[in-house]
Design goal:
By secondary structure, this protein is α/β, with parallel strands linked by helices. It is built from 11 helices and 20 strands.
């Protein structure tokens, strides 16, 4: 009888272990300014990317995935809240003196998963609030280690030399703070210390995985590279044929490889959703220190495809197709509801703009859930609309990288051009080169109606529309 009781106890523990691991772990790895064409699976040459290639073999690669806006803070707000960033009052890229922050009333992916029993951790670049209590541990993350904004927002130049010119805005900026939880624990004050950051973020992520392997976890690893200034670590410096940029991509490839290896070693691979993407397109005026838009027009800080179209890999063995390629229109806002559906968590109480793509990920439908995407930029400018494979450009002023690019870490000039109304067929013209509005007046009419719906909902500064359903950010005192 005693032996029977022991056996039943062991079986009970085993069943509880299965129940505990029923919910999949979720890992989002976000690159900073990595363009559509910066890895081998998306067309890069002369940079070996075996870990990105592994994701391509073992998961699905998405080819029409867009960040909600082509700039840091706005894109990250959209990812974490499932909303157009202008809906929640987050636009542009926050600088040290900015008094805006993501409103804590907005429910992030981390908060939703934490409420569903997950342990949550973030390591890397936050960029949604400059001081406590507007840091990750107040938005659903149990753990945070990283920096508050981009690593070029410091009082130093590209080589790490202290700024002494009082007319340079960087002179007024503080040293780059390194944060753990709610406390500043160190400052990054040199190029050498900056070069260690990718390694430290990877090590913290691996430690988090190992510590939480027996319960569901959500890991958000927000790398700071390949945003300038580039700072590859000593182990990767000079390893590629494309200078510091190539070295940096190789280091990010290494980081992903270490995460995937940890999942393998801890036998977590099959029960973990791995999502790898970028916040926006490349900062092209930096020339050889910038990446590739993969042939799409322009780059970061523009609403052309090179600014918002970024790579996306999703791996979930046995669930998401291995070696798959998906050309459906998808955005970073769609990750939140899809993850919620995959984990059994609850959607936010407030309305969101993301759409559940889980049936697509699982191969249960071939119909694209999303037909429309609004390209907002600036404070609240509706600059373009995507409807299926059509893109309507609305008249606006745009940055352009057609001027001379920089070299060796120096930024080239960024020009301005007036973009007139134009219609592009992205199925036949992904480079947005040939205006076909005269051929398809019915499509233009349909898309102008969609523009009016967006203006009524979220407003549009270009037409002086306020919008009915915008929410306010938090204000830092």
């Amino acid at each position: 009888m005693k032996n029977v009781l022991v056996l039943l106890a062991i079986l009970s523990l085993g069943f509880r272990g299965v129940a505990q691991n029923k919910q999949p772990n979720v890992i989002i790895i976000m690159m900073d300014d990595m363009g559509y064409g910066d890895t081998e699976p998306y067309g890069m040459t002369q940079i070996p990317t075996p870990s990105f290639n592994r994701l391509t073999r073992e998961g699905t690669r998405f080819t029409h995935y867009n960040a909600a806006q082509p700039i840091c803070s706005a894109s990250r707000a959209a990812l974490l809240t499932g909303c157009y960033s202008n809906r929640v009052g987050m636009t542009g890229a926050l600088l040290p003196g900015d008094k805006r922050a993501l409103n804590p009333d907005e429910e992030t992916i981390a908060a939703l998963l934490k409420n569903a029993g997950y342990t949550t951790g973030m390591f890397g670049k936050w960029h949604l609030g400059n001081k406590a209590p507007y840091w990750p541990t107040h938005y659903g993350f149990d753990t945070f280690y990283g920096i508050p904004y981009s690593h070029d927002i410091w009082n130093r130049d590209k080589d790490g030399t202290l700024i002494t010119n009082k007319n340079d805005i960087r002179y007024t900026w503080p040293p780059l703070p390194l944060i753990e939880g709610d406390k500043i624990v160190d400052s990054i004050t040199s190029k050498e210390k900056l070069s260690e950051l990718a390694t430290h973020l990877t090590e913290h992520s691996i430690r988090f995985i190992k510590q939480n392997k027996n319960k569901p976890f959500f890991l958000y690893l927000a790398h700071t590279m390949p945003h300038v200034p580039l700072a590859p670590s000593a182990r990767f410096k000079g390893k590629s044929d494309l200078g510091d940029f190539g070295d940096e991509i190789m280091e990010l490839n290494w980081s992903i490889g270490e995460i995937l290896k940890t999942l393998d070693d801890e036998k977590l691979t099959d029960n973990t959703i791995v999502i790898v993407t970028s916040d926006n397109g490349p900062w092209l005026n930096y020339g050889d220190h910038a990446g590739s838009s993969g042939g799409f027009r322009e780059g970061k800080s523009t609403s052309w495809e090179g600014g918002t179209r970024v790579p996306l890999w999703i791996r979930w063995p046995g669930k998401v197709e291995a070696g798959g390629i998906n050309s459906m229109l998808m955005t970073n806002m769609d990750l939140l509801p899809s993850i919620v559906a995959a984990t059994g968590a609850k959607l936010p109480k407030k309305p969101i703009d993301g759409i559940n793509f889980l049936p697509v990920w699982l191969g249960k439908t071939t119909t694209d859930p999303r037909e429309v995407f609004y390209y907002y930029f600036g404070k609240n400018n509706l600059e373009d609309i995507r409807y299926k494979h059509w893109k309507l450009v609305l008249p606006h002023s745009s940055a352009t990288y057609s001027a001379l690019h920089g070299k060796g870490g120096e930024g080239g000039k960024i020009g301005r051009v007036d973009a007139p109304m134009a219609l592009y067929d992205l199925a036949h013209d992904p480079g947005e080169s040939y205006d076909v509005q005269q051929n398809y007046p019915e499509i233009v009419k349909k898309m102008l109606e969609l523009a009016e719906q967006a203006r009524d909902d979220m407003g549009d500064d270009l037409t002086n529309r306020e919008g009915k359903n915008r929410r306010k950010p938090a204000t830092i005192n």
